[in-house]
Amino acid sequence: MKKAEREEYLKQKLEDMLSYERALWESGVPYAAGIDEVGRGPLAGPVCAACVVLPQGFDVIGVNDSKKLSEKKRKELYGLIVGRALAYGIGLVGNERIDEVNILNATKEAMLVAITGAAAMLAAKAPAGGGGAEAKIGHLLVDAVKLPEAGIPGTAIIKGDEKSVSVAAASIVAKVTRDRIMAEFDSIYPGYGFPSNKGYGTEAHYAGLRKLGMTPIHRRTFLK
User: Fold this and answer.
1) Is the pLDDT of residue 22 over 60?
2) In what order do the strands lie in the sheet with 154-157?
3) What is the pTM (predicted TM-score) of this model?
4) Could you tell me the domains of the chain?
5) Which of 37, 151, 166, 177 is a good FRET partner for 65, with 20 to 30 A between their CA atoms?
């Protein structure tokens, strides 16, 4: 595929992935938030969720499911997303809480923290609505998870990081954030290959566990 053809393809993909957001904007919901998480499957480290509110007219091409992007591209898009987003929030829930409440409930807790952060940033940054009303998130677009606990209308979208640009943007923000955290953990707990495996159960990670045992960031319920 030639460069011009690829650019045209990416522009069309962006248009397709804006369908959920556009429907909400046209129905009178100016602030829709995309939510996704990374880190449900690793043996170590936190689960990380992100909530991103994109502006109408968002035109960054290439935003997609973070798993389908190179590390270099994710970092590039991360900068563009956080620079252009109306608001974003990060939620982290650590391994001890994951062991206590299970990974699904911990994921929901991380998402709720991310929503709270994004809502606070939106209220501080976005212009007030009619009558001076505070800007508020009006709808949640969530990757696969139903989140009634948020108290905000929402839509759970299967493979949402492939179908909604807001969810895809959240997946990129969450992935880059968690990858940085795991790289930092490597300086504290070397020998497990965290910079490359990010806490997932690779051969190098299991070799580290056999040699060094578990660290304080390992999920005990994942390592029986």
Assistant:
1) yes
2) 87-93, 47-53, 32-38, 139-143, 154-157
3) 0.94
4) 3-222 (3.30.420.10)
5) 151
